[in-house]
Structures are given as structure tokens and as C-alpha cells.
Amino acid sequence: MVAALTVAATLIIPSPSPALACTGFSCTRGTPTLNPTDLPRPTLTKVAILGDSFSSGEGSGLGSYPKTPSGDEDFRHQSNYSAQALAWRYLANGHRPTPSDDTVFPWPVWTGSLFDTLQFLASSGADTNDLTHPQMDGATVRAAPQLDALDPGTNLIYFGFGGNDAHYASLLTTAILSTDPEGIGWRAVQTDEVRTRVNELLAVLPGVTNNIANALAVTWERAPNAQFVVSLYPIGVKPTGNPDIKAVAGTALDAMYFFAQSLNAAIRDGVTRFQADHPGAPRIRIFDPNTAGPGGTSLVAGHELGQPQSYFNGLTIRFSDIPKIGGFRAAQESFHPNQFAGVAIGQALAAFTAAEFPDLFPRGYNTNHIITNPAAYTDVPISDADLAAWRTQARNDLCASGQGTGDVCSAPAGPGTGGGGGGSGGGVVDYPTAGPSDPGLPPDPGVPDDPGYPDDPGEPDPGAGNPGGGGGAGGCEETDPDEMCTPDEPQQ
What we know:
Elements: E1 2-3, E2 10-13, E3 20-23, E4 46-51, H1 53-56, H2 83-95, E5 102-103, E6 117-120, E7 135-137, E8 140-143, E9 156-160, H3 170-177, H4 186-202, H5 205-222, E10 227-231, H6 250-277, E11 285-287, H7 322-325, H8 339-356, E12 370-371, E13 376-377, H9 384-400, H10 406-409
Parallel strand pairs: 4-6, 4-9, 5-12, 9-10, 10-11
Antiparallel strand pairs: 1-13, 2-3, 7-8
Helix pairs in contact: 2-8, 3-4, 4-6, 5-6
């Protein structure tokens, strides 16, 4: 079930023209930057979207996505409410304004006009290895290598990778499937499990930095005249004081914030490494939705998980699809940006792109006649029995396929009021914990088993930046720029 939400806040988005004011999500009446007669006639523009679920629009399809030729659901889960897809639509409308209202639906995916074209290649679950290799689901090819379809004459590439290389979604898998939310002291147990997993994954981030640098190199080789925008991940949790959400304690969400910051820092480091190794390459622009709001604020501030008007899906299970795709995949849309996030981030990304590349978009971006009617999943009550059955099935799916971590596969099934959901990456492996040179997370201040804990100040904010050292064996180096350092494992 979905429902439209009413948002009263006013969003001011900086742009190369005077700022565009949008009330809530009725952002449908922008204006071109300048009088079109004062500007050169725009030429053909080719834009590509490469990346994972946060680029494909996973979670914004509201349970409905494009179909394959055989009629099955296309597991790339592409949606027109992807922030990158909406940004391009606003930019294309600035190039050649549409004369009548054009309503945005999640699909079929819109790839352009006779003049401006979009290559929508992002795929849910993809990592950097899937740029040059087929994206596999066991023995089944889920998607062809993304770079195989990239036009060498592409002008602009939106690039969004790193989360699946870092096994980011395994934090939520650990939280939801390793802890019984009916157990005594479950908040403390779950938070401890998540903190342990965070410290394990911190050791992987040097390898993520290397993967991003290599991926940018091989992509630039395929499209040598393209400009690049690398998108960082919107952080859907607050630094501290997160409320409990279905099956996940607020204190566990607090612990995830530090890793999300560190992941974005590792991606930045990858861009820096690529630029240093390739001085002749174009300057890579980095779009950070966590600082792209007014005054450097986050575009998702006040709309994190558990907030009344959240920009992120909570636990979302498509029970009717379990027989076809399994328990874990049925929760694939969980914890991803929803349509409201797509609109807010998409407009900001369009403004950023127009400002950074005036030669490509001399008329800026234009929201006029692009009609968005964003909606989000409602929190539909699910019986304890259904959730407990799903939780057991999802764990069995992961562990039978060899994708589950030890904390998940060794956990007792037990009854539960909320086994929750997946996220975009399910394939995980156990890495060594961070070595002594890695500061890891700050000391645990303790987690009382108290339903009112969200009012507690919680653990201190460790601040932004990539944790030093990175000890352990998580990092890796590749000498072949066409081969990414990513474990060969299926992901969601």
C-alpha cells in the first residue's frame, strides 16, 4: 500500500540562476536560467547513469519495476524516481523545454528524445566489478557488464558505486537476522553485533578506495570525452538519537552512521587517487547530498529512517513475491531512498550539474511541466507470525546459498516480532576485524534495554573522515585496471 505524504517544509535549492523555491514536493514550476534567445542552440547531449541500487532507483518503484522480455521482473530495479534519472530529466527540459505537462511515473524508464539521450545502466546490487563483468545471481546473469552498453561519445556520466564493494547492507542484515527482537535485552545485543560488524567492515574500505580509482580509470578509457559526477550516499540515519524502527534498535542505527561517513570518505579518496594517477583526466566532480542543502546542510536532514516524513523506506516485505524470489529478495526495497528523496536529491543534483557544466547545459535546468507526485510506502501492520516466518525464510535463503555471515547463520531462529529486511547488498563475507592501527568505533557507552532510549544522547559522534590505518586484510590492490578487487559473490 502506498500513500502520498504532505510535506510543509520549504526547500531552497541553489542553482546557476536565481534560487528555485519549492514548497514541499510541488516543485513543478521552475524557470530557465536565461532568455533562450540569448544562448547558443544546445547540441545533442548523451548522459549515462552507472551504479548500484542508489543510482537505479531501488525502493522508489513501490513494488513495481520494469519487466524483462520474458515478463519477469527486471531485478536491476530501475525507476524514473532515481535522483540521477530525475536530474537528467530536469536538465533535458532545460535544454529543450517540454511544451506540455509531463508526469513522472516509476516506469517505463524514459531514455530521452531525438536530441538528448539517457543510457540508464545502473543496477541494484551492482559493485565496481560489474562494470566490466556480468552481474551474476548464482549461475544466472542478472545484467550485462554496464560498460558494454556505454556509448564512447557520452558527454556526462553519473557514477555511483562503493556500497556493495563495502558490503554496507550486511550491517542491516546483521541487525535484523542475528537478533530476535522479542528477546530480553535485544537492543544491547543487536547494537553490539552491529558495532562488531562495523569494525570488521572498516578494514574493507582501503579496498573500496582502490576499486573506485580503478573503476573510474576503466570508465574514462571507454568514454574518453565524458565529464564525471561521482555521487556519494545520502546518510539515512542521524549521528545519535535515532528512534527504534521495525526490528532495528535506534542505538544500532547510531552505530551505522559512522560507517556511512567512512564509506563516503573512502569514495572521495578513490576519486583523489584516480586524479593523481591520471593527471590528463577531466576533473571529477563529487556530489554530496549530505552537504548539498541550504548552508551546507543535508538534503535528508529531518527525513531519516524513523522520522514522520522519512525519505527512506523502512522494513518493506513483498510477501506475495516470496515464492518466486525468496524471502531475502522480497525485502529488497527496504532502507532505500523513496520517491520523496528522488525529487529532493534529483533537483539538487540537476542544479549542481548545471552549475558545474555550463558548456553542456547553457540553459541550466528546468522543472516546469515536469510533474512529480511522490508517494511512499505506508507502515502496514504485519502479524508477528508472518514476520517470524519471513525472518526464518530470509535467514535460510542466505545461509543455504553461502552468503550469510557467521553472526546471522549461527543465530537461533526463534519467534520474532520483526525480522526485517534486506537492503541492496546481501552477499557478505567475514573479514578480519580492524587491526590495532585502526581506531575503529569510539568506546561503547553502553546500551540500556529501554524503549525510551532514543531520548538518550547515545554514543558520541566520531565526526567525518576516513578512519586511519585500515588494519586487517580487508584491503586489496589490483594491477589490472579492468579488474576490480571485489569478492565473487551474489548480491542484492
